[in-house]
Design goal:
The complex is a heterodimer of chains A (about 140) and B (about 575). With about 140 residues, chain A is of the alpha/beta class. Chain A has helices at about 20-35, 45-55, 70-85, 100-110, 120-135, and strands at about 10-15, 35-40, 60-65, 90-95, 115. In chain A, strands 2-1-3-4-5 form a five-stranded parallel sheet, with helices on both faces. The longest helix of chain A is centred in the C-terminal third of the chain and has 15 residues, at about 120-135. Chain B is α/β, with parallel strands linked by helices and about 575 residues long. Chain B has 22 helices and ten strands. Chain B has a five-stranded parallel sheet with strand order 1-10-9-8-7. The radius of gyration of chain B is 25 Å and the shape is globular. The chains are: A alpha/beta (about 140), B alpha/beta (about 575). The interface of A and B includes residues 26, 30 and 72 of A.
Chain lengths: ~140, ~575
């Protein structure tokens, strides 16, 4: 599938103490194979670090993978930091394991999409493309 | 009459005179005839569903196995249970002598919360305890550390100081039940606390049975819990092993693990090989420091996944025992049989469990438990049907225990040892997996050994590749996952009660820690931490005694880690995708 428009840049990240990186690495690879430029933050990052990196790397999308249950602490923090840095044009996407109720809440807070443990790689790719297309040029 | 003139070092199923040799020749001809006649006719009317059948690891499978497939297999390689090479099991009586330990993991909230779950599980027939710790404890942070925010007592129990360990085991006689602690970079500290609790209670340390997981190498490879760089971390493992060899004769200081390696994406073959590679590295490290292998090897224990491909898993367990026995004998010159035999805990494969149609998880777990038992596990945790949601409820754990109890009490499987031994298929597959394991071990040697391969990211890349391959097959449907890519229910109304997280946990734990710090002798703690650093600096000294002293004075886990980080630094991963 050919990609139209400029190359999409994505930072996929692991924030907090959660060390489960199987999923985030698969996502990184799938996005890279689909022609996106992907940076992986590595493990145990802080919200400050990933927001800083997202801005520095001028990414379209910042992805957070969380399986530790700490998502309702970490996502709001990241959202606040993006607002404070005037970087809300960066789309925030979540992945991992989260309860459905929390997914709804996070979307209301401004997370653009949440793709959890059974989301096939193709759907993740197409969702990212759709989000960027819908947002339009920055 | 055809005489079998093949001279073998050992006897094979093919010898015993000429009659078996010609029986095999007849079988070979029958097989060919069957393929050309009955089989061909049947396939022309109804083709098989695939052209290529493989195990989950990718090993090729035949449609049927016969005596021909084991004709060359030395009977000595199969052997007998409780004797070299231990293919059939580590003990001569296995479950006839003692059922495997039913060991469901438990851990959440404060130590008192988890203590309640321990008592519930024991009431339900659990025979060994297994403790899960929260992310801060796993990573070496106290509950009041900034990195701990939002994570205290969430995925496991919070342990900061000795008082927490006392509360965790309140009312539980540690001389009468074994306790496994799933803890890695901070394992030696929790072991020190465990020893301190035991000493305060007046126990003889040699009475204590249990294990700390304490397998730091697989952390760098797969589970990703770490503090210090690789080499000082391996030294810590060495110290715990030699300390226990001297002071805690019934204790297993390490649980060398493949489970996490498999859950991170490795195939069965990779899981087995990478775990043995880790074991080799530890045994190397300890013997290099001057210890005799037979002094400590009998208490090395293992932990593997029990995954979905039932027969591959059974063959994997058997191959593991055989490979390890050969490695310990031939590479390390072990003399004691106990030094050569794998004893393992197994856990059913969490990665296979789904949120959609979550009750199906009960069935998956049952079959996986079955292969662990058929494979000769010494201890077993069966996952809850709510595994894909969060940490388990009491109800889920009770049903998981019953799953094991049905196998133990209703199927009659425990009556016979290694019941799949002798199966043409299982023996063939066992030998095949053994061969593949040795190939990988050779590759690791060529890279300069386990630690070098870890530093190079080799294991991590292999795992990432296998994980990606699995994801692609799952996405394409080639790997069926019921409820997810097959028999999907479009509008599922999920009704499930999940284990709640109590938001007051973090504050309670932080306050408790503050109180302990206020009451303790701060100068004494400083002195003992300084002493610990001195001991740590000297590679020839064992850090356990100084750590035990420090925890007794109420030095916190986080303080101990921070003190040694000043000395050793922290590990920073170079991630591979």
């Amino acid at each position: 599938m050919t990609q139209e428009g400029p190359i999409i840049r994505v930072l996929v990240s692991k924030v907090g103490l959660d060390g489960h990186d199987r999923g985030v690495k698969i996502v990184a690879r799938a996005l890279r194979d689909a022609g996106m430029e992907v940076i992986y933050s590595g493990l145990h990052r802080t919200p400050e670090e990933v927001v800083e990196a997202a801005i520095e790397e001028d990414v379209d999308i910042l992805g957070l993978s969380l399986l530790s249950g700490a998502h309702m602490t970490i996502f709001p923090r990241v959202i606040d930091l993006l607002k404070a840095r005037d970087a809300t044009d960066i789309l925030l996407v979540g992945g991992g394991v989260m309860p459905k109720e929390d997914v709804a809440t996070l979307k209301e807070m401004g997370v653009a999409a949440i793709l959890l443990q059974d989301a096939p790689p193709e759907r993740i790719v197409s969702t990212m493309r759709q989000l960027v297309a819908d947002r339009g040029p920055r | 009459m055809q005489i079998d003139t093949q001279a073998n070092a050992g006897s094979t199923v093919a010898t015993n005179g000429g009659s078996n040799g010609s029986a095999l020749t007849r079988l070979e001809r029958s097989l060919q005839a069957w393929e050309n006649d009955e089989l061909a006719a049947f396939i022309s009317r109804q083709p098989e569903s695939k052209t290529d059948y493989r195990t989950a690891s990718g090993l090729p499978l035949k449609r049927v196995y016969t005596a021909l497939d084991v004709a060359e297999l030395p009977l000595e390689d199969v052997g007998l249970p409780g004797a070299f090479p231990f293919t059939r099991g580590p003990y001569p009586t296995m479950y006839r002598g003692r059922t495997w330990t039913m060991r469901q993991i438990a851990g959440f909230g404060t130590p008192a919360d988890t203590n309640g779950r321990f008592k519930y599980l024991i009431e339900q027939g659990q025979t060994g305890l297994s403790v899960d710790f929260d992310m801060p404890t796993l990573m070496g942070y106290d509950s009041d550390h900034p990195m701990s925010l939002g994570e205290v007592g969430r995925e496991g129990v919070a342990i900061d100081v000795l008082d927490d360990m006392e509360a965790l085991f309140d009312g539980i006689d540690l001389t009468r039940i074994s306790v496994s602690m799933t803890i890695n970079p901070s394992a030696w500290i929790l072991l020190a606390m465990y020893v301190a609790v035991a000493q305060a209670r007046g126990y003889d340390l040699h009475q204590l049975s249990g294990t700390t997981q304490n397998d730091i190498l697989k952390e760098y490879i797969a589970q990703k819990e770490w503090t210090f760089p690789v080499r000082p971390s391996v030294r810590i493992v060495r110290d715990t092993v030699t300390y226990c060899a001297a002071h805690m004769h019934r204790y297993n200081p390490v649980n060398i693990s493949g489970y996490h390696i498999a859950e991170a994406g490795a195939t069965a073959v990779q899981e087995a090989a990478f775990t043995i590679a880790d074991a080799i590295a530890y045994v190397d490290e300890i013997t290099k420091a001057g210890h005799d292998v037979d002094d400590f090897a009998p208490r090395l224990s293992f932990f593997f996944v029990s995954q979905a491909d039932l027969f591959e898993e059974v063959a994997k367990f058997r191959a593991l025992r055989r490979v390890y026995a050969k490695v310990m004998k031939e590479r390390f010159g072990a003399q004691k049989p106990e030094s050569m035999r794998i004893r393992f805990h197994a856990q059913t494969a969490a990665i296979t469990l789904t949120q959609p149609q979550h009750q199906v998880n009960i069935v998956r777990t049952a079959y996986q438990a079955l292969s662990a038992v058929l494979g000769g596990a010494q201890s077993l945790h069966t996952n809850g049907f709510d595994e894909a949601f969060t940490i388990p409820t009491e109800e889920a754990m009770k049903l998981s225990l019953r799953t094991q109890q049905v196998i133990a009490d209703e199927t009659n499987i425990p009556a016979v040892i290694d019941p799949l031994g002798g199966s043409y298929y299982v023996e063939s597959l066992t030998t095949q997996i053994e061969t593949e394991i040795f190939k990988i071990l050779d590759q690791v040697e060529a890279l300069g050994g386990t630690i070098a391969a870890i530093e190079e990211g080799w294991f991590q890349q292999q795992i990432a590749d296998s994980a990606y391959d699995y994801a692609r097959r799952k996405a394409s449907g080639e790997r069926p996952v019921i409820g997810v890519n097959k028999y999907v229910e479009p509008e599922e109304n999920v009704v499930i009660e999940t284990h709640p997280y109590h938001p007051a946990t973090e504050q309670r734990q932080v306050e408790h820690l503050r109180n302990v710090k206020e009451r303790r002798d701060a100068a004494e703690v400083d002195r003992l931490l300084a002493r610990l650093k001195e001991v740590a600096q000297d590679d020839t000294q064992n850090i356990m005694p100084a750590t035990i002293d420090a925890v007794k004075a109420r030095a916190s886990m986080g303080e101990i880690i921070a003190a040694l980080q000043e000395l050793w630094g922290t590990y920073r991963e170079r991630p591979v995708i």
